[in-house]
């Protein structure tokens, strides 16, 4: 299968390698990693996992190991013909995903991957973002990472060779390669415009994605992608390696072997009651984006004052008891504000 590195030689710059750090292994992910503003590779961080040891033995050993935890769970799976070359993307007319989606017992999914993944031109079989405790109960008893006070969502991704378009996620992310090899190509959040992101509400897998095919970048259609590659970083990973991805960093992900397994953990450092900024962006498109330019400038000033550049001086002139939602948000005040918003949106 062609790779981004192969196709970009002589056309686009090679991305810089992601920074690697060598830390003594501990039960919990080190704080130094959890607060990093840039991606970080931890080589061999999960190499003691039994699933990694099975994967290094053979695909059959990996299949047998995972099958121990099969309790008949039905999981979402995307499938497609070899002609897709593993790329999960849109149909040509953007009417939906280019892969067929359905549900199947996890044992059947594992069997099909084991039976077909080694073909020269394998079909696309992709189990994406399934909650581990639901689909493989007991797996985390033997294969897990500690996060101290945080309680992350632990998910598993299993498939044949796949190419997942560049996208970003709100939570922080620790991606652990349990089987196979992965290549992550990462970009800072400010490369939004240079990655040519597609529709927000119509997406193949829940998050807006780059429309650039990294294996065959069309620089006539997407000329600013060359600028994005000036800021790119790449992580070449094997089974046992872990990668920390900060919030909102774009990442294009390639699974490079016949049988690939990734375990990832998502967590946020703010309370759940604060909600998601994506909701605010969607609402701003509804209420602000199509205003006359002079009115948009006014509201940009208001957002800067109350949200992006707020400090103690913003509310210093208001008595403490009268500040309302201008005070730091609490669970109680968030509930009141959410109820107010729902009431007004439903008018």
Automatic annotation (TrEMBL):
Coiled coil: none annotated. Residues 111-284 form the JmjC domain. Residues 1-23 are annotated as: Disordered. It comes from the Bacteria. PANTHER family: HYPOXIA-INDUCIBLE FACTOR 1 ALPHA INHIBITOR-RELATED (PTHR12461), HYPOXIA-INDUCIBLE FACTOR 1-ALPHA INHIBITOR (PTHR12461:SF105). This is Cupin.
């Amino acid at each position: 299968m062609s790779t981004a590195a192969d196709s970009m030689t002589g056309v686009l710059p090679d991305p810089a390698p992601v920074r690697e750090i060598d830390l003594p292994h501990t039960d919990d992910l080190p704080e130094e990693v959890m607060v990093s503003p840039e991606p970080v590779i931890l080589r061999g961080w999960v190499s003691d996992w039994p699933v990694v040891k099975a994967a290094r033995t053979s695909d059959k050993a990996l299949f047998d190991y995972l099958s121990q935890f099969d309790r008949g769970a039905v999981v979402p799976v995307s499938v497609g013909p070899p002609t897709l070359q593993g790329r999960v993307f849109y149909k040509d007319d953007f009417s939906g995903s280019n892969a067929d989606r359905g549900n199947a017992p996890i044992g059947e999914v594992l069997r099909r991957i084991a039976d077909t993944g080694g073909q020269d031109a394998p079909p696309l079989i992709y189990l994406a973002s399934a909650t581990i405790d639901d689909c493989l109960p007991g797996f985390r008893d033997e294969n897990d990472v500690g996060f101290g006070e945080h309680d992350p969502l632990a998910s598993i991704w299993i498939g044949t060779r796949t190419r997942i378009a560049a996208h970003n996620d709100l939570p922080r992310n620790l991606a652990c390669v349990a089987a196979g090899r992965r290549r992550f190509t990462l970009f800072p959040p400010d490369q939004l415009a240079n990655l040519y992101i597609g529709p927000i509400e119509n997406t193949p897998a829940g998050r807006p994605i780059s429309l650039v095919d990294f294996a065959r970048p069309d620089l006539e259609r997407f000329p600013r992608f060359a600028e994005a590659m000036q800021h790119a970083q790449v992580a070449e990973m094997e089974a046992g390696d872990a990668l920390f991805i900060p919030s909102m960093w774009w990442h294009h992900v390639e699974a490079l072997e016949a049988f690939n397994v990734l375990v990832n953990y998502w967590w946020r450092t703010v309370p759940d009651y604060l909600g998601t900024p994506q909701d605010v962006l969607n609402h701003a498109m509804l209420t602000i984006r199509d205003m006359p330019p002079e009115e948009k400038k006014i509201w940009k000033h208001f957002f800067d004052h109350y949200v992006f550049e707020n400090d103690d001086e913003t509310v210093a002139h208001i008595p403490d008891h009268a500040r309302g939602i201008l005070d730091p948000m609490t669970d109680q005040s968030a509930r009141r504000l959410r109820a107010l918003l729902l009431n007004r949106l439903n008018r």
